[in-house]
Design a protein that fits this description.
With 437 residues, chain A is mainly alpha-helical. Chain A contains 15 helices and 2 strands. In chain B, strand 6 (102-110) and strand 7 form a beta hairpin. The chains are: A mainly alpha (437), B mainly beta (340).
Chain lengths: 437, 340
Amino acid sequence: MYLADSRGTDSREAQAAVVPDSRPGRRPAAVPGTVLALGAVSLITDVSSEMVTAVLPLYVVTGLGLSPLGFGLLDGINNGVGALVRLLGGHLADGGGRRHKAVAGLGYALSALCKPLLLLAHTLPVISVVLAADRTGKGLRTAPRDAMISLATEPEHRGRAFGVHRAMDTTGALLGPLVAFALLRATVDGYDAVFTVSGCVAALGVLVLVLFVPGRTTAADLRPEEPRRSSGAPPEQSRPALRDALGLLRRPELRRLTLCATLLGLTTVSDSFLYLLLQREGDLPAHLFPLLPLGTAAVFLLLAVPFGALADRVNRRRLFLAGHGILLLGYALVLSPWHGVPAVLAVLFLHGTFYAATDGVLAAATAGAVPARHQGAGQALVGTGQALARFTCSLAFGAAWSAWGGRTALAVTAAALAVSAVTAAYVLRTTSEVKPA
Amino acid sequence: MTSRSRLLILLLSVVLLAAVGTGAVLHAAHRSGMRDEQQADGPKVRPGTVSLSETPTRQLLFRNLAWGPHRDEMATVPADHPQAPRTASGVKCLRFHASAGTAICLQAVHGALQDTYRAVVLDAHLHERHRFPAAGIPTRARVSPSGHLVAWTVFVSGDSYAGTDFSTRTAIVDTRTWTIDDNLETFHITKDGRPYHAADTNIWGVTFADDNHFYATLATGGHTYLVRGDVAARTLTTLHSNVECPSLSSDGTRIAYKKRVQGASPDAPWRLYVLNLRTMKETPTAEQRNIDDQALWADNSTLVYALPGDYGSDLWTVPADGTGKVRLLMKSAVAPAYAG
């Protein structure tokens, strides 16, 4: 039995959300098999996709002999489409309680198909299209996957479950480049071999999903009991309508969470800008630049599980806010006069810690604010809000950089992040985490 | 489905997928092995001594792409006899340029975990004088006419998932002091007469006028510009728009460059143009194909550049004044430089 610390009006919603996981006869496990299976799928898929990402620049420049500048132009469009696809994926996945796996599988399969297509793509426009399709697959699968993790895990263990998943995901991302370069070495510039093996690895990921992730992740016996919140929805309707999904925003708890994730996303500088600032402002030798993302990923990998476990003991929203406080420290460090490699390492440590304290934690917090039948849509809503906000921040940050220079742009963003964090703390003050009795 | 049958399916699929992957790797390895065998109809390549000076005749240096044991090595032929047997130096470079007894050679270093790159400054006998780590995949290299300054450009790519965010890093080294400016993006930019800064600035394709001044391409906000740079003052000033990979003529009056032309296919948008720096008049050359190279002035009136070919790329020439016709200079070669 769980008790909602009910200072607000959300106790009923919160209880509705946790009910599916407290069904009788189910042995509570800290990290259920479904989560491990999904983690394995993500690990394998990330090996596959990061193999391609690691060699793609080399392939384009030396393999195809093309100049890839201006190649990132499609990124903006991709970001927008990706966000909408994520909403769609989350919504479709909620249908009938069986579709999480199907929609996620579709997303994984679409990305897997893109790998062999790269063998046929010899010009930048075609490569861009293939990458966009790959990203569409990622957008499609993200929300159903997080919904499955939520539904498979007891609420009080969700932080750890998401932490384990994110750690496995990041492990794959770190392994991918190693595999790719080992293959390039063995074949002397055999990019086709890298793409083929990447396709095989991706196919294996889809297979693991199909074989080892249970198709039914929602307890069917509980869905009918759930009160229908949207009065406009016809009573005979068997699956949630898109209106219902957006109607989720009528839930104060989810609305506040989405608002805060969006607000904080609006003041979160994208990784590439942060690395660029570190390099240009931090006196970092240019050849160390490619190692910066590895630093963040390594810290994220190491801390995702401990912070996930922490999220099960403290208030997840507060941890999410604290994570942004850590990011703020990182910004302060970039702006500080302390330069050189140790300073850069410190910034990367804070940056990785920020991800560990926010990425899976937000998903876990979202899970607690949404009823079981809307887990996909709920995850998609919060994730999309955050992603679109971060994209908006990128555009604004680029403009600010042009107007005032990089340092000032970061200082302004840091100040805005502080304001956002204080606002978010105020907005989230009334909603408290569901805690085990 | 029982867990036993699931495992069985997984096992079978792993075997099948592993077979496909192994096949692809073996096929690729076999193909790359073939590149080490000399082609019967290919140019003759023999090992020998390559020197940037002390040669009786002018030499054309280039990266030899002909299949065989000397593939990717810097090689020479007499400048007036490009079909002569090639003399391979044993020095492998991805990009190369030389002037006045100094050469810059951009190399890949095949590490255990990933490829890294370095820029090596060579003396007249192609022996290493100094090396610098390079930030990414080499694309352009130049030496100043005096041999005192060297510059190179590499591509670096972003980070995140399916990252398509490419940018460049350009460095300049003074070989008299070995001081390095490893990112020209930190220079002060004056665009259209006003100070300018932006996160998306990229600079590439340095071509030197003297031991302090150079020209290069600045890209920002979706446009490219010809900039004139000052090493001592650390400044870049825009002069003209839609200019990529500039190459200054030996008399310092004209710039050969890639111009993005209207109506061309988006993946082949560039044509070879020449800009008169005094009148700022643009002249298209007779080369009608898409070019993606920093052209080289063979003399005051002829341009040399690489185009894709059967073995990677071939070198072509065209008159710089817009007249005449294109001519194949040599097959299976890239990164040309003249010496002697």
